[in-house]
């Protein structure tokens, strides 16, 4: 059940290093060549990274733009629905009261709910300010 590896891994040797016949300096790259290649590779990497970040930014920008458009449309639709609800309430109340009184009752109720929501928002902001004050 023992298996021996088919091949053993060996480190490749450069030409001339095993025989010693050739000069080591002739085959080796100069330091200047290595540094210039390193500089070129670094510039290419930086350019590729910049392109990647530009692409990511454009993807995020498109996503935010689309979300803003859809949110705006949803907000307008919500306002239109509230208006339709209020008109429906006025029509329903005008059967039992005069249309002017029905309009005043619905408008007064809407303003009352608005004031309550604003007071709740003010309370939230006050609690938040107290929480972050040192």
Describe this structure in words.
- With 134 residues, the chain is an all-alpha fold.
- The chain has one domain.
- It has three helices and no strands.
- The chain has helices spanning 24-27, 31-94, 99-132.
- The longest helix is centred in the middle third of the chain and has 64 residues, at 31-94.
- The radius of gyration is 38 Å and the shape is elongated.
- The protein starts with 23 loop residues before the first helix and ends with a helix.
- The model has no long low-confidence stretch (mean pLDDT 83).
Q: What's the gyration radius in Å?
A: 38 Å
β-strand number: 0
Number of helices: 3
The stretches of 5 or more residues where confidence is low (pLDDT under 50) are none
Average of pLDDT: 83
Question: Could you describe the largest sheet, including whether it forms a barrel?
Answer: none
Structural class: mainly alpha
The general outline is elongated
Distance between the termini: 72 Å
Helix content: over 70%
From N to C, what is the helix and strand string?
A: HHH
Query: How many structural domains in the coordinates?
Result: 1
Could you write a compact summary of the structure shown?
It contains three helices and no strands.
List the helices and strands and how they pair.
Blueprint: H1 24-27, H2 31-94, H3 99-132
Helix pairs in contact: 2-3
């Amino acid at each position: 059940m023992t298996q021996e590896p088919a091949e053993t891994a060996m480190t490749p040797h450069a030409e001339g290093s095993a025989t010693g016949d050739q000069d080591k300096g002739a085959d080796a790259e100069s330091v200047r060549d290595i540094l210039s290649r390193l500089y070129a590779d670094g510039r290419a990497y930086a350019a590729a990274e910049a392109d990647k970040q530009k692409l990511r930014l454009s993807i995020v920008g498109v996503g935010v733009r689309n979300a803003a458009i859809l949110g705006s449309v949803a907000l307008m639709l919500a306002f239109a629905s509230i208006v339709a609800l209020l008109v429906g309430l006025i029509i329903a109340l005008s059967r039992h009261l005069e249309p002017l009184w029905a309009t005043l009752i619905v408008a007064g109720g809407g303003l009352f709910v608005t004031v309550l929501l604003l007071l709740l928002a003010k309370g939230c902001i006050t609690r938040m300010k107290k929480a972050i004050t040192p």
